[in-house]
Amino acid sequence: MSMTSRSSRPRIAIVGAGPGGLAAAMLLAQTDASVTIFERLDHIGGRSATIKARSQAGMFRFDTGPTFFLYPRILAEIFVACGRRLEDHLDLIRIDPQYRLVFEEGGEIRATSDAADMAREIARFSPDDAAAVSRFMADNRAKLAAFRPALESPMNSALDLLRPGVLKALPGLRPHQSLDRYLARYFKDERVRLAFSFQSKYLGMSPFRCPSLFSILAFIEYEFGVWHPRGGCGAVMTAMARVAEDAGVDLRLGAPVQEILFDGRRAVGIRSARGTERFDAVVVNADFAQAMTTLVPDSIRRRWPDRRIATRKFSCSTFMMYLGLEGDVPDLDHHTIYLSRDYRHNFTEIEQGLAPPANPSFYVQNACVTDPDLAPPGHSTLYVLVPVARRIGAGIDWDANRDSFRRLALERLQRIGIRDVERRIRFEKILTPTNWEHDLNVYTGATFNLAHNLGQMLHMRPRNRFEDLDGVYLVGGGTHPGSGLPVIFESARITSKLITQDLGLTAGRATDTSLPADPYQPALKEVV
Ligand SMILES: Cc1cc2nc3c(=O)[nH]c(=O)nc-3n(C[C@H](O)[C@H](O)[C@H](O)COP(=O)(O)OP(=O)(O)OC[C@H]3O[C@@H](n4cnc5c(N)ncnc54)[C@H](O)[C@@H]3O)c2cc1C
Q1: Both ends of the chain: CA-CA distance in Å?
Q2: Coil, helix or strand for 191?
């Protein structure tokens, strides 16, 4: 194999400029390594990219995926480690009330971190449940504190579970308890339980299957806020790429990696359209299952061969509509979640994957109420997400079902007061599970990656220092700690530390890392 090595500095390749890849690049660029990102698309951000659509009226901008920006602390610390301050690069707006929940069964909750208002909202369903909120918050504050060491450290083997900080947290995992069952200890009304468990959607899982550990997701929203970065989550990606490039990262767009090259089990380089290049370490940010099954020979993967990957549990997929509208939707909150009456059945349909759900729950973001510049003057954007099945076997024929499901989704928007929408559409883009799979390289269209059941968490998730190969590392939603932006940023931090150790890199090029890390900590008002 003839490969060119251009410098004597250790060379690191990152496959993918998604949030995990960009965060890893920022951190690794602070060492003496030379860092190259290969991104197959002509833009950064992956599932967190900005969709830009020019219309006659001007530009519409949508986030492709994430719209809830949670727990900014981790990214703020990463910026500090790079000698920057997140608040100099991004304008984060706290959304409060953080979202409106509409129940088909009847009733609404405007979820807020204002303790008195939230108690009033919940008391309308059940006074006892309102009283339990502060107990839920206190218990989950302790749970997050106990579990943080496990979330912030690598899980290289089962032995890592025995580390003192981690061991202490294990009982709190309640391995066999679902999130819904756990919440029944606090809340009697099923709708209130849903208000504290629908967040399992961020993991693409049903609250009836999702491990109870993930009650910390709702807690994090109330404790640390739900934020909107001005310009959308895509603006976060732009800020990260800028810091990475300023630090010397070679960011190559439109540069798909075709193969990771090995000498035995050791990664030695990358093949792309430009030819082969030698690298000392390869960081995979591309979707884990997709990347392994296409870029790495099956025969050298012991723990994660193709047939095992195929039988793992994966998250659901999503049917997306990005609508650029003439006029606005003034009475609609920034975030609205509609929970259908047969929520359980809805999830069963999604798990079976035989047909599109008949009576789906959905989520709508009306970002222009907070950030009008996302649409041209006199216009607005709507982002509609409907959880649907990933491709299971032959899967649903989305080419055949796309139009009828679009009609169903538009009709259902009326349930949250959005009427007369179709006539006003000036731009429209739809993503089905088939698009996620084929256009965005997401394995079977499972948008939120490997599921987060206990058998696929911690040391049982593909590891940051990838256990099957030497010189291959993982960042992003497919590795520890999991899917969702804050933990993806954490994965980049864990992985960068491991690479720094393994390659003996000199850390700390950033000159001033003593800046205050967390201006986002204080709650707006008294926290629940
Ligand atoms: C619809 C949706 C809604 C979401 N909502 C939220 C939310 O509200 N809050 C939240 O915190 N999280 C949310 N998430 C989850 C998560 O934050 C995002 O999916 C996130 O973008 C995943 O980041 P990642 O680092 O794993 O990489 P990805 O975003 O998957 O990026 C991987 C990159 O690798 C590139 N790539 C793939 N193959 C190759 C190759 N061969 N060569 C070079 N490059 C390659 C891809 O093009 C892509 O740019 C959401 C996800 C989705 C899909």
Answers
A1: 61
A2: helix
The response to whether residue 319 sits with its C-beta less than 6 Å from ligand 1 reads no
From CA 9, how far away is CA 35, in angstroms rounded?
Answer: 10
Cα of 46 vs centre of ligand 1, distance in Å, is 5
Tokens at 504, concatenated? 């003996």
Structure tokens at 492: 């980049």
ipTM for this prediction: 0.99
Nearest alpha carbon, ligand 1 atom 48: 46
Token reading at 66: 């994430």
Contact 16, 46 (CB under 8 A): yes
Q: Is 257 in the pocket of ligand 1 (CB under 6 A)?
A: yes
- CA–centroid distance, 135 to ligand 1, in Å, is 35
Give me ligand 1 centre to Cα 1, in Å. Answer: 32
Domain boundaries, the chain: 11-91+233-310+452-502, 114-224, 316-447
Strand positions, DSSP E, 205-307 = 226-229, 250-252, 257-263, 266-272, 275-278, 281-284
pLDDT in 10s for each residue of the chain, 528 residues: 445 444 589 999 999 999 999 999 999 999 999 999 999 999 999 999 999 999 999 999 999 999 999 999 999 999 999 999 999 999 999 999 999 999 999 999 999 999 889 999 999 999 999 999 999 999 999 989 888 888 888 888 887 777 776 777 777 667 679 999 999 999 999 999 999 999 998 787 889 989 998 999 999 999 999 999 999 999 999 999 999 999 999 999 999 999 999 999 999 999 999 999 999 999 999 999 999 999 999 999 999 999 999 999 999 999 999 999 999 998 999 999 999 998 888 888 998 999 999 999 999 999 999 999 999 999 999 999 999 999 999 999 999 999 999 999 999 999 999 998 999 999 999 999 999 999 999 999 999 999 988 888 888 999 999 999 999 999 999 999 999 999 999 999 999 999 999 999 998 766 556 555 555 654 433 333
Does ligand 1 lie within 6 Å of residue 40's CB atom? yes
CA atoms within 13 A on the CB side of 137: 19
Domain 11-91+233-310+452-502 indexed as CATH 3.20.20.70: no
Ligand 1 lined by 256 (C-beta under 6 Å):
yes
Which amino acid is residue 277, in one-letter code?
E
